[in-house]
Each structure stands twice: as structure tokens, then as C-alpha cells.
Amino acid sequence: MKATESSTRIFDQAHYQKLIEARGATIRSIVPELGALLKFSTALDAGCGLGFFAEILRSAGLAVTAFDGRLSNVEEARRRYPDVAFLVGDVQDHHILDLGSFDLVLCFGLLYHLENPFAAIRNLRRLTQKGILLESMCLPTEQPVLQLLEEPSLEDQSLTDIAMYPSEGSLVKMLYRSGFSHVYKVAPMPDHEQFFETPAQARRRTVLFASFESVNSPHLIPFAEPVVRTDPWAKPVSLPVKAFRRAAKFSKKPREEKFRSFAFRWIRWFPLPIRLSFDSRWIARNSIVDQRILIGDFEEDEVRFVQGFLHPGQTVLDVGAHHGFYSLLFSKCVGPTGKVFAFEPSPKERERLESHLKLNSCSNVQIEPNALGGAVDDRDLYVVKGGDDSCNSLRPPAVPDPTEKVRVHISTMDEFLDSRSLTHVDFVKVDIEGAELDFLRGARKLYSLSKRPVFMMEVSDLRTGPWGYKAQEILNFLHEKNYLWFEIEESGKLTVADTSLSTYDANYVAIPREREQEFADLQKLS
């Protein structure tokens, strides 16, 4: 229901409205999904202010009760949203438990205004039947600590003149210790600068979800309880002593571990030339993919499969080439008589892709700067600023790092095949962060080639979630095209995939049914 006419309050100011709308968009996005999973029917909005979020919950079909510590806020909320039950209450007082219990408890913008946020969380846990969605300011430290700060006497601040501001780690620890068995960070965070690090400010806010049972959602990233291992009473150790202890500890490590320790510190500041497992040269930097490559834990099963399948003279499409790991592998496998087309729409990632291809003299790889989808278009690509740069997506990705928008052109595979007069494709690797189904819809000509290609594709609910579909739909789409799905074993060999799982998060191989025997014979030879 639309809010009724009322006087302008501090929460109606432009800067507040921007923050409220960003947080409201997150509620609108995640609550229906969680509600379907956990069967929400009732909700409580704790610290409801003027009722903005309570109304969003009511619009989602929930029976909503809301309370706030200020009578003036409650009276205004009742005027604006008469279909919601608004009450006056103190979340730190045990009498708040008289409200009963609710499937979902929402607590946005409240905890950091309290003298005792842990008492509040204990009460909220007792009010919660299934899950709590919590938003708060948080101190910029990984340690589970709280800081006592003075608050001005304003209507958007504490009821008293002092409050305990928590760190994100302390919020997580309090949620676990109050009785919740699972805690998650919500991703993506609300689209507002306070939820991301900026050149001038550390990240100031977070959004968490806690529940009594495990919840499998692409918007939830599990958050383990922080453990403090340092002694707060220990005196600082001088730099020479600290350096000596580190050197002594380092000297006892095996040679391979010594290199990894050195490499992980080096790439924080400088590029590091290394050799990949298939002998291509690589410049490691401080990204998550680079870190996994350094420890030998980046898709080695997939590498073994590709090495066993591809051979010289073949044509390969690398859709979502990123920095070129697979493009380099494909280039080696198909040799100078083969051809690789590497699709990478992000200018930042394409720069590293180009440098790796040049470093390895890959004359058989051609870079295509377009994204691929179901229709020709121009859209924003969300480019991750942090180390998770392999998660760039045409939808806001489910990662904690901030993103920036880059306008890119989207083509279709059908258009590309026509423009290159390609009538033969042997292998297609697709890893485009949830856009896989869109890509398949724009690649109809691949399914009608005289010898249909094999696909290796990321199938992950974490990535398809922001696109609004289940990863199962990728399997169903190619199954309807008479493809068979396989899992990749540690040896690089294939086994028939279980296509009845509730969720997926792996790379799978799809083989045309008419080529099943060919692959069976190939695996016997390998």
C-alpha cells in the first residue's frame, strides 16, 4: 500500500533515501527467494524507523509486525503504512519477547545504536523461528571487537548518548553464540558506497543472514565463526626479533612450500613469472585465480581432460577467456594447424589475456572482444575490482568485492559463425558467470553442424542465481538437444553425471549422443 501523506522527517532526506532504496532493493531481491526455501509466512521488523522495510515485507506477502524504540517513529509509520502493525519496544529489554516468534526477523540499521547489541541479538534469536536478515554498520577490522562510541542526540541515532559499534566479525560471532547454527554474508551487497571500500573510506556496512538450518542460495556466502588466536596481553615483539622468528620458521618449510609462501607475498605488490602445469608461461598477480594456480589447485582435472581430448588441427572456442589460462592450453593442444577463438569482453581482463598470448607466441589464437548471449545488444558488464575478477558478469555478481560498470557489445554465437564462415567447431568451453543459458539460446547453429561440438561448461547455481534461473536449466537445455552430461574425474576421465541434483557447482562436459561411442573408445586408449 502506498504511504499516506505526512510531514517530512530526517529519514526522508535525499542521502537517507538513497541508502534506504539500496537496502530495500536487497530485501526485495533476497526475501522472496529465502521465503520460498524456508516457507516464510510471518515477519518482524526490529527497529523499523518509519516503516519503509516493514512495508516491503508486507508487499512480499508476509504478515508483518514491526517495532521501534521511538514513539514518534511508530506514530509516523502507522500513518504512512496503516496495513502494518507498528508497536513501541526496546530490543534490549526481555519484555520484547512477549511479541512471540516469527519466521523471519529483519533488523536493519539498529544494532550499532545500542548499548548492548549482544543482548539484542540474544532477544532477536528467541524471536526468530527460521532466519534473521541483519544489516549494520561495522568497524573496519577482521577481529570480533566492539567499540564504545558517543552518539549525538538526533532522531536517527541512539536512544541514549552512547552505543557499542560492532565489527563484522563480532556480529557473526554473536549470531553463532546466541544460538544460530549457520551464518552467511549476503551477496551482492546493496548498491551503495557505504557497503564497499572507496578511496576515501573503508567499507562501513554489511548484510548478514543467520538460520537454524543450512540454506543453499546463490546469494548467501557461508561465514565461519571468527576465532581470535592472538594474545591481547602479549607485549609487541621488536622487528628484528619478529624477523628472526619468521626466518627460522620459514627455513623449516619444504622447498615447495617455501616457494608458495614467497610467491603469495610477492604477488601482492609485483608480477611473478611462472610456468603452468602444461608448460606455458604465465605472469601471476594478486587474483584468486593466480593464487589457485600457485598452489596447483586450479582445475587440474579439467586440464587433464582437455589434454586427452584435443589434438592438432582442431577448432576451439574459449567463451569467457579471462586472462587466458584455457586459451594457452587450447593453443598448445591444437598446434599451429588448429585455431582458437578467445572471447573476453572486459578490457581489463583482455589486457592480461593479450599479454599472456604474446608471451607464449600464440599465433593460432584470435581474441574476440564481445560478450556472447541470446541476442545482439549493448549492456553493462559488472567488472569486479578485487581479486575475484573471474566473476565479471552481465548481472551484479554474487561476490563481496565492489564492481564497476563497463559498457560492452553482446553478439550471438550464430552471428559469429556467420561472420567467420565457420562450419566446423570441435570444442566449446563456456564460463561466463551465469550467462551460459543465454549463450546456448544464441548458439543454435552449433547444434546443426555435421559434427556437433563437445561442450565444457560451468554449471553453478551460485552464478545463475543473479540471472534468476536454476543451473539445472543448462543441463535440461542441452539434454533436449540430444546431449549427454558427464562429470570430470581426478584422472581427467569422464563419468556419467547425476542430473537430478538439487544444486550444482562444477564444470561439466556435454557430448552429442551420436559421439558417445567415440568418447568411450578414446577413454579406453588414454
Which CATH C-level class of the largest domain is it? Alpha Beta
Shape-level CATH architecture of the largest domain: 3-Layer(aba) Sandwich
Structural class: alpha/beta
Distance between the termini: 65 Å
Mean pLDDT: 89
Largest sheet: 8 strands, mixed
> Beta-strand level of the residues, as a percent range?
15-25%
Over the alpha carbons, how many angstroms does the gyration radius reach? Answer: 27 Å
CATH topology name of the largest domain: Rossmann fold
CATH superfamily of the largest domain: Vaccinia Virus protein VP39
Order of strands side by side in the largest beta sheet? 3-2-1-4-5-9-8-10
Overview of the molecule:
With 526 residues, the protein is an alpha/beta fold. The chain has 2 domains: 10-222, 3-Layer(aba) Sandwich (Rossmann fold), CATH 3.40.50; 298-525, Rossmann fold. It contains 16 helices and 23 strands. It has helices at residues 14-38, 52-59, 71-80, 117-127, 168-178, 239-251, 255-266, 288-294, 300-309, 325-334, 347-359, 413-420, 436-441, 461-464, 472-480, 516-525, and strands at 42-46, 63-68, 85-88, 102-108, 128-137, 146-150, 162-166, 182-186, 205-211, 220-222, 272-275, 281-284, 315-319, 339-343, 365-368, 371-372, 377-384, 403-411, 427-430, 454-460, 483-488, 494-496, 505-512. The strands form 5 sheets. An 8-stranded mixed β-sheet has the order 3-2-1-4-5-9-8-10. Strand 2 (63-68), helix 3 (71-80) and strand 3 (85-88) form a beta-alpha-beta unit. Helix 1 (14-38) runs parallel beside helix 2 and helix 4 crosses helix 5. The protein is globular and about 75 Å long. The protein starts with 13 loop residues before the first helix and ends with a helix. The mean pLDDT is 89.
